[in-house]
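ATP-binding cassette domain-containing protein, Streptomyces acidicola. Tokens?
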Amino acid sequence: MVAPPDNDVLWAHGLTHTHDGSPALHGVSIGVREGEILAVSGPRGSGKTTLLRCLSGQVLPQQGEVWFNSTPVHTMRPHTRERLRRERFGWIDPEPALVPELTAWENAALPLMLRGTGRRAAKTAALEWLERLDIGGCARKRPHALLYSERQRVVVARALVGSPTVLFADEPTAPLHRAECAHVLRTLAAAARSHRITVVLATTCAETAALADRTVSLLDGRRVHSVSLPQASGTEGRAACSLSV
Ligand SMILES: Nc1ncnc2c1ncn2[C@@H]1O[C@H](COP(=O)(O)OP(=O)(O)OP(=O)(O)O)[C@@H](O)[C@H]1O
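Tokens:
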């Protein structure tokens, strides 16, 4: 076994995983430094989501090791991994999944309330993030009354509200239009840098990857030196993004 380097908040070695026999990762090793924004880039089906799920302890790789702050995640019991995810990690999916019965602020405040933060303090923190993401006016609306892009901003607020140590963002701006994409990514990057949140960002977009401090590339489940990703100018609407951070 190789010891993880001290300055990596996340470190994985030899990750191999298949989904029902369908190969997703082959011997992927990766280190994520504290406070960095790391892009995991690659075309669709290259293994980005599987890698993020392995790193965040959602999926146990069939082979390989994952370490968080020098603690092995791959040998943790399920409830310990759940607590780690709840207390130290944030997650943004490409699809904005919210609890339909709760308002926008209640959805955004959920991670704090699950940790036992009082309703009032959780509400204040959630409202601050909704304001920063320009949807403070939607705080009392339920998800059905929000635009798709507004729902995704609530998801981003929910991921940031608990100041996670590591934020995993799986194509976080895929559902957004060009201007919204840039704004959400700028907010996310600024929040990460000001709160020293480490970000692992899966993307198929070259301009989103350019936001990161560093990029690792995947192709067919393997680390490769680089991959060619589409530029925003060659795409339309939702997939496009334009950044200046
Ligand atoms: N639940 C699953 N069941 C079966 N095969 C899966 C499952 N999830 C992923 N795969 C397969 O594993 C491979 C890697 O998928 P993964 O979602 O990790 O890649 P990705 O780069 O995130 O792709 P995308 O951008 O489309 O989400 C693909 O061939 C995919 O079809």
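The pocket of adenosine-5'-triphosphate is lined by residues 19-20, 22, 24, 42, 44-50, 204 (CB under 6 Å).
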